[in-house]
Amino acid sequence: MKPYAGTVAAVVLLLLSTAGGVPPRGRFVEAVGENQLDKLIDEIIYEQGQELIKKGKDKIRLPDFHKKFEKHIVGSLELEAEVHLENGWFKNTTTLYRIGDVEEKDAPDGSMTFRATFGLRTAVIGHEDFNWKFWMLQGSGDMDAECKDNAVTVQFTIAYDEQHNCKVNLDVAQITRLGSFRVSFEPDGFVNKLKGKLFTCALNVFASRIKDTVNAHLEDALRAALKKVDICGMLPF
């Protein structure tokens, strides 16, 4: 092997990494290894779940929702529908599981940012009181619905102050994908099919408000979890 072959290979690897061919390894991964980083994130998510359970937030209360639908048919004829959902809850927030490896991005100032995506096993939403009205039909009761294909994104940053004290800050903890809700009522029949369509439509309309409510609790629990896990103590620098 020629004496300069090793140098050429190193230059090629550097060019590939900067061009996106070989992703550069972050400082944290270089120090502790990829497996250890994945285990660390899993530990944080475990502590997050324990925090939600301890505070009774594994079943999160939702605000009341009210929606009126109007559909112009022909001439002056309009069909109207109303949906009122009260005393609602969202559960299964403690069922996060990591999807893939954790991404690390290092900044020139020495800070390190970590981002991971998690699945959320079937979310369940329910309301203890609902009222509905469609034209001349109306009714009330309670209901629950399932929501699959969900995703949560978590991002946090390790940074150093002027005295080189290590700090961990939560940047993002939010539901980035909430699959469509599907509501059905038994027994099968015209009225129950109509109710199912009304409430499915209403819940999907309210999806952004549901996410906002749940995200606030996820963030609080993850901040508490980050304090319990000694991330800075793992760093050799």
Automatic annotation (TrEMBL):
It comes from Ranatra chinensis. This is Uncharacterized protein. Coiled coil: none annotated. It comes from the Eukaryota. Keywords: Signal. It holds the Pfam family Grp7_allergen. The keyword Signal applies. Residues 1-21 form the signal peptide. The keyword Signal applies.
